[in-house]
Specification:
five-stranded parallel β-sheet, alpha/beta, 2 domains, Rossmann fold, seven-stranded parallel β-sheet
Length: 320
């Protein structure tokens, strides 16, 4: 069986290719250094890693499995030809669960303890505590609405529940109730659930269904005391609408790791707005990520050769 590593290549992908070849001898692993070489070898490939263009896909007469190079590839990866093709696509989801869940809880705890107010005062050397028993969210009496209860959302729910929070989940596919989640709902319940939440947490990928789905009308449904957190994908949230909601006092604040435009422009109002905490798309940062990616890749290679079900199969029409 031929397995093609599609370009562009790096020292990491070349190393992975060598390790896969050693671990799964039944695979003929070919590293395509450029588009011309990819065109020469793709016709005989039964499996591939990377990004495949419509032109290359037309030549891939034997292709049955494609490993995406990311957990959530950018818009355009799942082009119409790939969606229509019978090839099975897998991704690298769930490698970030612990790192991103910790990042979410850092936002939650910062807001709950008023750090969004105190951090700017620290920069001004301003010793000005809030009045006694104000500026605090008592977590055991709060509700977190997690939109997207996959691996990241489920780990966040477990951590939030450990702080005594009541967790409500919304997910397009999940119907079971993972540990820490009090109740699960389908996406059509989102509007009804928003007014109940003290923290609205987005972990969803960017898909045709989620693009721009957090907009002004939905921010208006939230509690004025509630906080919005997005660590999923920037294009799920209309930043102009978020700015308008913050300025109108419709929500109390926002913790953002992802943005419609990245980097966030230096003159964007979110940089200096009260109640806003920003990190530069770093929620997934942490140790062991490359090894976790490789473990999924080599496990799927073994499964593919053995004719077993693959891990992390994607619904191509939904992009995740």
């Amino acid at each position: 069986m031929r397995f093609v590593m599609l370009p562009p290549q790096s020292a990491k992908t070349r190393d992975w290719a060598a390790r896969v070849a050693a671990a799964v001898p039944a695979l003929d692993v070919v590293v395509a250094e450029d588009d011309a070489q990819a065109r020469n070898v793709i016709a005989e490939a039964e499996a591939a890693f990377g990004t495949i263009t419509p032109e290359l896909l037309r030549q891939a007469a034997k292709l049955r499995w494609l490993q995406a190079p990311q957990a959530a590839p950018p818009a355009g990866y799942y082009h119409p030809a790939l969606v229509a093709h019978p090839v099975v696509v897998t991704n690298f989801r769930e490698i970030y669960n612990d790192h991103i869940a910790a990042h979410i809880m850092a936002f939650v705890l910062a807001f709950a303890r008023g750090l969004h107010d105190y951090l700017p005062r620290q920069l001004q050397r301003d010793w000005r505590p809030e009045p006694l028993d104000t500026g605090v969210v008592h977590l055991p009496e709060s509700t977190a609405l997690i939109v997207g209860v996959g691996g990241i959302g489920a780990e966040t729910a477990r951590l939030a529940a450990a702080f005594g929070m009541r967790v409500t989940g919304v997910d397009a596919r999940r119907r079971d109730t993972p540990p820490g989640v009090a109740e699960m709902h389908a996406p059509d319940a989102l509007d009804a659930l928003l007014p109940r939440a003290d923290f609205v947490i987005l972990t969803v990928p960017h898909t045709p269904a989620t693009e721009g789905f957090m907009h002004r009308a939905r921010f208006a449904r939230m509690k004025r005391s509630a906080f919005f957190i997005n660590i999923g994908r920037g294009k799920t949230t209309r930043l102009d609408d978020l700015v308008a909601a913050l300025r109108a006092g419709e929500i109390a604040g926002a913790g953002l790791d992802v943005f419609e435009q990245e980097p966030l422009p230096a003159d964007h109002p979110l940089w200096t707005m009260p109640g806003v905490l920003i990190t530069p798309h770093t929620a997934g940062f942490g140790p062991y990520l490359d090894e976790r990616r490789f473990e999924i890749l080599v496990e799927n290679c073994r499964r593919f050769v053995a004719g077993q079900p693959l891990r992390n199969v994607v619904d191509k029409a939904r992009w995740f």
